[in-house]
Amino acid sequence: MVLRRTVTVLAGLFVLFVLIAPSDLEKFSFEAFLRVPLEGLIGVMALVLLPDRLRRPVAVAGGVALGLFTVVKIMDIGFDMVLYRPFDLVLDWPLLAPAVDFVDVTFGRLASVLAVGLAVALVAGVVWLAALSVLRLSSAASARRPVAVRAVALVAVACVSLAVPGVPVYSDAAATSLVDHARRVQAGLHDQEVFAAEASVDAYRGHPGLLSSLQGKDVVFTFVESYGRSALDMPGVAAKLADGNARLQAAGYAAKSAYLTSPTAGGGSWMAQATLLSGLWIDNQQRYRNLVASDRLTLPRAFREASWRSVGVVPGITQAWPEGDFFHYDEIYAAQDLGYKGPRFGYATTPDQFTLESFQRNVRSKQHGPVMAAIPLVSSHAPWSPTPDSVRWEELGDGSIYSTMPASNDPPESIFGRDPAAVRADYAHSVSYSLESVISYLETYGDENLVFVFLGDHQPAQMVTGEAASRDVPITVVARDPAVLQRVEGWGWDDGIRPGTSAPVSRMSDFRDQFLSAFSPPRP
């Protein structure tokens, strides 16, 4: 009898937790669970009033549904922690494949197989536990129908009579979550049509004289991983930007800066990069796949068609990358092509300074016509520790110098087991390192014919930014030739490499056309 009652209580607590628990880990608090779930009251009443022959199968079906809802809520919490949004039941399934690939590359095939097996077992276990819990509660309630009916009625009356504005007594979180997901499913099912309509407009395809105002210039687009607007007020980053601005001015450079709103946050760098280069809003994997299967005019392709040598330097690519063909690069330098022989620092396969040195050595130092390059820098990717030290450029060699520095290959999710204050400090330090790499490269290898654009791809995880952070990232154009910055004067961007709080903000997808318009003849 005691065991049966204990099982009933545990089943009730499990169902109560699932129905009330927020989908945002930041909102977990003792007060959040001091509420009565209306869905639970309705469920108990429905099961109690059903005939015995229907009660058991309905309870099992309801338990399975509750289990699947629990799995989705877990996915919501995970996505909110990393990407600032709930899980999308239509559009986010393709993201699971890159997650498995990451485990495969980082820890090996056995680890990826075990991870998939564990995930399947977890889902099955949660669904089984939920079905068992609802079935147990159904049996207990039906055995005492009069008591159960009176208890539900009493609790419902108490919820109404004790309700005070601003002090929630009951919860409809589960129903609200289901409605929200239903709306996202509807939007997701139509997203392919919406994206096709957006992609059908390609204003600069076949435009004569494209990029003619940049003839003779090397143009570099550098994405600094996780360099978001939130970083600008962190002491180390703010100091680095102030110091870097003074150093670049002393070296004869001028700069303009503003903000772009990224289509993603916390992760999904490839979607942000594709957005900037294609001029289309890529905020889910379905859009990304449709994009790379299309014939869209990207910035690398535009430069290539205008007689630039188009190069992709992508240290984060460790496997085959068929999407590279879509961007129309003449050459692609993946991680294994950079000549790095040093250790790995967290996620980063190659320190940012070495990546830029490899670009200089393999591309710009050789006799060449004008070059356009897209370079994602990955040292400021989570877990943000350890970060390599900056060294003199002539000492980089094959990267063996980094063997004297503490290194690791900790996965990005390791940040969730560390002190948030330490994570934020590590984040700021890694971004400062990445910015120092850019600034020092410009000082060392810049000339009158270099135009350098550097920007963040997305904001870091919420444990760094806090709740309600924007998706804005800084973007900066740097050049020595005054004619280059005169071309962008009409954008209204702030002077220097740090945009002010009131600097212009535009969508990242608008940049392609804005850039092409500034450096090309007017469209007919």
TrEMBL record:
Keyword Transmembrane helix set for record: yes
InterPro entries: Alkaline_phosphatase_core_sf (IPR017850), Sulfatase_N (IPR000917)
Keywords on record: Membrane, Transferase, Transmembrane, Transmembrane helix
TM annotation in the entry: 32-51, 58-79, 110-135, 147-170
Domain of life, per lineage: Bacteria
Pfam families: Sulfatase
Residue ranges of domain Sulfatase N-terminal in the record: 272-461
Alphabetized GO MF terms: transferase activity
Protein name: Phosphoglycerol transferase MdoB
Protein's organism: Lentzea jiangxiensis
